[in-house]
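queue> pop job 88
queue> type: inverse folding (structure -> sequence)
queue> payload:
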């Protein structure tokens, strides 16, 4: 029986002991590829942003519907890839890629109203051994154990993201400057890319607080300009941009939906249990590179090696798969594609109807 035939069974995640041989192999076999390479990061991010904005411009400016839709599709895929570098920013050492964080925020984060502070200091909590899968994990919900309506709600919330981001940066953040309780509320409840509705963020401190200040300022000024733009450009450019970001957000939410099995009910888990609750979608399938770019098709391997740069994850996976072999614990986190994983979660929720 293959791993694909057994994934419908409930996972007793909290009771899985650590596979120490696998954890040791993960550390020892990948030391030589653990350095972030600027020659890969910079061109990838810059080209993705350039193609994304060119596609967005085409979607706005072209009159033929088929050409505009094609440009919009290109914009969604390219901007999606550019945005996902925010995940890398949370893991790479601050000194590894000089200037990369600033450039990404200037070119992608602030224009898309998702500056890096919304993920930095949040995503690392998801990787904390004692927090993953618990009520203190900002990026975890037991989706496979929830009611059927939770999945469409999960996607609808993502579709509304661009409206929420505009209101947050153009209205709520400026108002918070003169209404301290609102400022604390916006920071605590609306300043993190989190899916756990009970997560409340702590106030920023020190150098991070200074970084938040300039990113918030840039995002607010840009959001105000966007809301004012119909006065001289009409509504078409803003409406198309909102639609492109909404589709991008839904695309990312679908990826998030299949990044884990979502079967933990709040108990602390071992590293191996966290790995088995996460998902790899390795080759030979090619579509995963579109819906899970920047190394995220190897999400389970990423949970074993959180600091591994995205460009090294394919090689890390090949080495570990060859070393551990078919039928090993490592093999059990690999799945064939998004459709099967969504179907598995949907069937799990239907059983709770």
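queue> result:
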């Amino acid at each position: 029986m293959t791993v694909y035939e057994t994934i419908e069974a409930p996972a007793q995640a909290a009771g899985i002991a650590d596979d120490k041989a696998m954890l040791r192999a993960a550390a020892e076999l990948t030391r030589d590829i653990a350095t972030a390479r600027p020659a890969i990061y910079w061109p990838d991010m810059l080209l993705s942003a350039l193609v994304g904005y060119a596609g967005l411009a085409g979607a706005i400016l072209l009159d033929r519907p088929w050409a505009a839709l094609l440009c919009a599709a290109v914009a969604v895929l390219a901007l999606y890839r550019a945005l996902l570098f925010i995940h890398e920013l949370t893991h790479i050492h601050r000194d590894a890629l000089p200037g990369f964080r600033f450039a990404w925020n200037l070119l992608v984060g602030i224009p898309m109203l998702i500056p890096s502070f919304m993920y930095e200091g949040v995503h690392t909590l998801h990787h904390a051994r004692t927090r993953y899968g618990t009520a203190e994990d900002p990026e975890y919900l037991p989706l496979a154990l929830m009611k059927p309506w939770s999945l469409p709600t999960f996607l609808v919330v993502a579709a509304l993201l661009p409206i929420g981001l505009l209101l947050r940066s153009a209205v709520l953040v400026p108002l918070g400057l003169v209404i301290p309780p609102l400022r604390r509320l916006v920071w605590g409840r609306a300043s993190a890319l989190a899916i756990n509705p009970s997560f409340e963020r702590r106030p920023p401190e020190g150098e991070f607080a200074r970084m938040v200040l300039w990113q918030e300022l840039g995002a607010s000024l840009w959001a105000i300009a966007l809301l004012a733009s119909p006065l001289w450009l009409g509504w078409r450019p803003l409406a198309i941009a909102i639609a492109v970001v909404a589709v991008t957000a839904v695309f990312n939410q679908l990826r998030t939906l299949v990044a884990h099995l979502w079967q933990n009910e709040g108990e602390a888990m071992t590293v191996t249990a966290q790995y088995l609750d996460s998902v790899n979608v390795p080759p030979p399938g090619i579509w995963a590179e579109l819906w899970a770019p920047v190394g995220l098709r190897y999400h389970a391997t990423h949970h074993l090696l959180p600091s591994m740069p995205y460009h090294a994850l394919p090689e890390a996976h090949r080495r570990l798969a060859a070393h551990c072999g078919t039928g090993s614990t490592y093999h059990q986190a690999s799945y064939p594609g998004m459709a099967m994983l969504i179907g598995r979660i949907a069937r799990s929720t239907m059983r709770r109807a």
